[in-house]
Amino acid sequence: MNTPQATRRLRAAKAVQGAQRARKDLLRRAVLARQLDQIAPGTVRVRTVPVSADQDGEQRLATAVALDDALGLPVTADRAAHRAAHGLLRRMFPAADWRRPQVYDALTGALAVDEPTMPEELHP
After folding, report:
1. CB-hemisphere CA count at 13 Å for 18?
2. What is the DSSP letter of 122?
3. How far is CA 32 from CA 63, 74, 85, 87, 89, in A?
4. Backbone phi, then psi, for 22, in 5-degree steps?
5. Helix or strand (DSSP H, E) at 83
6. pLDDT tens, N- to C-terminus, the chain (124 residues)
């Protein structure tokens, strides 16, 4: 005798949830890319690096922001554009550890820790 199995229903529900998550991520990536392009036209990659600055004898943590185009060349933008791009990313990724260098790629929608790596030809 056939006994009903719930696995098909569970798989279908997971597939629907996965598709909904993918659409949400795609929409979020498109919105971020559009907003970055409005802030500084041509921006595809945003790099942030926390730096320690000495202001009036007091150590403060500041963030250096670099805006790059699709070829990795710097985008011409003023200080307000750099600040706006950094603020946008901080609002969109509140759980990220901004005390570490980060890189956001608008093409993939990925925010990752930007750690320096050794070139492949220098590996032993």
Report:
1. 6
2. G
3. 20, 19, 10, 12, 8
4. -65, -40
5. helix 79-92
6. 566 665 566 777 888 888 888 888 889 899 999 999 999 999 999 999 999 888 788 888 889 999 999 999 999 999 999 999 999 999 999 999 999 999 999 999 999 998 877 778 887 7
